[in-house]
Design goal:
This protein has three helices and eight strands; from the N terminus they run αβαββββαβββ. By secondary structure, the protein is of the alpha/beta class. The protein starts with a helix and ends in an 11-residue tail after the last strand.
Length: 148
């Protein structure tokens, strides 16, 4: 199959995801962080692959679109080693007030209280148990320029 056939096949094959940007990070206790992100925050546990007692790969989808990938920290993987607690992400939600309230009630560490921003977003930020920073807000980004 040549490149054009592969592209055409991808366009006509049902149930394939559109290309996305997938933030990735690692955790000292990946199973616990996955549980926190799913049970407390609201991500969907789409896939978790374990290898010898560690999480080799996990995919967590955000119900409103997008997702993240994570795994167990392995400092021997120098080519792709991300120190736990150094990750940050902005997550779009139409339910920012309800999510803020739910996370505060769950005792999640809020590092920036909910607030309306001058650029039109309503958002807040929290830290997860490993120290990663998560900002949740209504800002969906600017429209893409027209292709000319």
């Amino acid at each position: 199959m040549n490149t054009n056939e592969a592209v055409q096949s991808t366009r006509t094959t049902p149930n394939l995801r559109a290309p996305d940007v997938w933030p990735t990070f690692q955790a000292h206790d990946a199973p616990a962080l996955i549980d926190f992100l799913v049970t407390t925050v609201g991500f969907l546990r789409t896939a978790v692959y374990e290898d010898g007692g560690r999480v080799a790969h996990a995919q967590l989808d955000w119900p409103e679109g997008g997702g993240v990938m994570l795994g167990s920290y392995d400092p021997r993987s120098a080519e792709w080693c991300l120190k736990p607690g150094t990750f940050g992400a902005y997550v779009v939600t139409d339910h920012v007030d309800a999510l803020h309230r739910r996370l505060k009630e769950a005792g999640v560490k809020v590092i920036r209280e909910i607030e309306d921003q001058p650029y039109g977003s309503r958002e807040f930020a929290v830290a997860d148990p490993e120290g990663n920073k998560w900002s949740f807000g209504t800002y969906r980004g600017e429209p893409r320029p027209q292709q000319g």
